[in-house]
Amino acid sequence: MSVNTLPTIAPTLGETSWFIHDRFGLFVHWGLYALPARHEWVRNRERIKNEDYQKYFDHFDPDLYDPQRWACMPSKRG
């Protein structure tokens, strides 16, 4: 599969009608890989060399890391 080709998505198995009513999902994209602002496989798929990826390590500063607070925020907003 090339980088520009999307994979074929198989249909979801099982009963999924509940999702129409209850749908809510939250995926927190947090980590060093979020700095390039593309996807968590950016280094692998774009074949970024270690020395070129180093700038993200140098810039990454998780001083505001607070997953407990992040998890509470959506529920407080309904």
Q: Please provide the ordered H/E string of secondary-structure elements.
A: HHHH
Main beta sheet? none
According to DSSP, the number of beta strands is: 0
Helix content: 25-40%
Unreliable spans are none
Q: In one word, what is the shape?
A: flat
Number of helices: 4
User: Strand-residue fraction?
Assistant: under 5%
Query: What class would the helix/strand composition place it in?
Result: mainly alpha
| Radius of gyration, taken over Cα atoms and rounded to an integer in Å | 18 Å
> What's the rounded overall pLDDT mean?
82
Distance between the termini: 40 Å
Explain what this protein looks like in three dimensions:
- By secondary structure, the protein is an all-alpha fold.
- Helices cover 37% and strands 0% of the residues.
- The protein is flat.
- The mean pLDDT is 82.
